[in-house]
From TrEMBL:
PANTHER family listed in its UniProt record: METALLOPROTEASE SLR0863, UNCHARACTERIZED PROTEIN TLDD AND PMBA
Superkingdom field: Bacteria
Annotated SUPFAM superfamilies: Putative modulator of DNA gyrase, PmbA/TldD
Region (Disordered): 376-410, 547-581
GO terms for cellular component: cytosol
UniProt keyword annotation of Protease present: yes
Protein name: Protease TldD
Stretches assigned to coiled coil: none
Alphabetical GO biological process terms: proteolysis
UniProt entry tagged with the keyword Aminoacyl-tRNA synthetase: no
Family, similarity comment: Belongs to the peptidase U62 family.
Keywords: Hydrolase, Protease
Gene Ontology molecular functions: metallopeptidase activity
Amino acid sequence: MHGAEQSAAATDPLLAAMTAELRRSQQGLRVPGNPRPYYLRYALRRERELLIEAAHGSLLRRRDKLRGRLEVEVRVGSHEFDNVFDGGLDGDQSERESADWLLAPDDLEPMALRCALWKLTQMKFDEALEDYYDHRKAMVAEYLRDEVASFTREQATRHLEALDDSPLPIERWSQELVELSRRLLDHPEIHDPTLSIRGERIHRWLVDTEGSLVRTSDLWLEFEVRGFVLTDDGVYVEAARAWPARTLDEMLDAAAMARLFDEVVAELHELREADSPGSFIGPALLSGQAASTMFHEALGHRVEGNRLGARGETRTFARMLGERILPPGLHVFDDPTLTEHRGHSLWGSYRIDDEGVPAQRAELVRDGLLVGFLRNRTPLPDQSSPGRGGEPPKPERSNGHGRSAGVERPMARMGNLIVESEASHDQDQAALERELIELARASGRRHAALIHRVRAGETATDSYDFQVFKGELAHVELLDVETGARRRVRDLELIGTPLSALQRIVSFGGEPGVDHGHCYAESGSVPVGGAAPAIVLSEVELQQASRTGFHEPLLPPPFADDGSGGRTGRLRERGRRRRRR
């Protein structure tokens, strides 16, 4: 053990135990005639998950779970050729035998921790040897035209944070949610409502054979109000508001929670009156929050570096470095080191990624031109050729975007995807709406779309699927370009193909919108943030969302039953009066 490692281990018995077992494994894992491990990484996550839910004056759930989970990465062979190929996207680690041995001992007793690592390391070593020979076989059986080296060389990282174990105000939050949820007793028309607070605190320890020693502490919190109403045509429509926070001080007080509650109730009443146009095609103005989701799905996933060399991926932007993919004046970067954007906390912030590399700002688009990719320790195919003018190629480096939820192998993922516009190209909201109307008139369309919020998005990047993305619209209006009237509509989804959608951006500006959530991909679910200005697209397609029909419940909720006979009772009469107005 080196001097710096000894110093860190002396103050943290878990790092000492992990480092001792790591060195023992590095020296002892030998099978004659087979490649030896050249790199090992151990990580331990101590995860505390909190869920509080309330409705109708009742505490529905209060769950406070604590668990420890292990990660072991074993690479056999060399940095140039090892057991990982297809950008690490080739195998489902959760389906392997080793996935049954990821739990750490609850008390984190050092020797018990070493025993758990010993067992898991042996299994990972066996799997790594199998994968190594599968990689060799693929080299013989196929022409892997995008094959590159296997693993980058990085400097050892030493980063030790104090572990925050300050108690969460669970009792107070529970009382506040229960009290606020009593107001739902005045709204029998709202179905399946919940008020919730979710929290996740992760303490992480990481060591590897390159000398990295990492200890980090993170907290994510979210307050949410959610509910549904049933429309006349039998569709349950949803409204929700969420408030993200990274510290206790950022969480809302009871009065602010109540204001979000009122917003959801008002929106649900508005949605009951909204109609469903079935579909729409024409120009659209997307708010910053909606635009952020579109950039995440249409651009962000397609600049994740691991996808550029995987056989099953379409590699949309792999050959487009230096080419224009966005209008002049737009810049895109991903920066996990940012903790806030214009006063709003960013959900995707971290200091060290899950491969032990410091987080860094990754420049992706500059003035509309593609200039880079999100990178972990998997080299990129386009970086293997010599530089211009006969210059030697630059050494491969990660930009600190290797992320994993703890089971699958880390891959390059988004952290905080930020879209910025130059002031010389910016337009304010009024100018954007004027251009929207002009576009609709020029194309002979009566309506344009105003997309204020997107609830969720998804995309496909593999070569087997169609290259599309989809956004579930939470708030959309149709603007009559002749009269200026705005009409709330529902049951619509934004769909598009990535290249064509990005090329249809004609103007942008206004106040940036900030987004947050959990992103699901091959390496699991990770928290992400984003920000973008409003954008005008010359044409979008909105498709009909699922319209499964339901009838009203035969009986009203017990708290609203006046004994008048189910569907003709107070619940239905209240709905009729509201709809008539």
